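Structural biology now treats backbone shape like a language. To illustrate, our science desk offers a sequence and the tokens encoding its fold:
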Amino acid sequence: MDRQSFQILKSEIEGVPIEGYKDVLSDSIRLNGRPDFEMMNEYGVEKNGVMFPEKTTVQVEYRGIGRMPPILKLSMSLKYKKYKFFTVETDHEIIK
């Protein structure tokens, strides 16, 4: 968090993947390990006082498989570029 503006600059989430849960469950049984999910968002693009992500990284590993090191299932890094901002104008009318 930025100490001056109190804007969130980075967020981290750890847990069990929700998307593709059936695949995660079958991999856990097959590998006899527990899945660890980590996602980190870094915010570096500001528009009108709102911070937008600049980079997201996701990693899924299976741990606890005997004495083996963790097995990496997924690792990806996304970089956001060329944001396009637009405005929408609407007109309204009160009908009684």
Residues 21-31 form the longest helix (11 residues). Strands lie at 10-15, 34-47, 50-63, 71-79. The chain has one domain: 10-79. The CA atoms of residues 27 and 33 lie 8 Å apart.
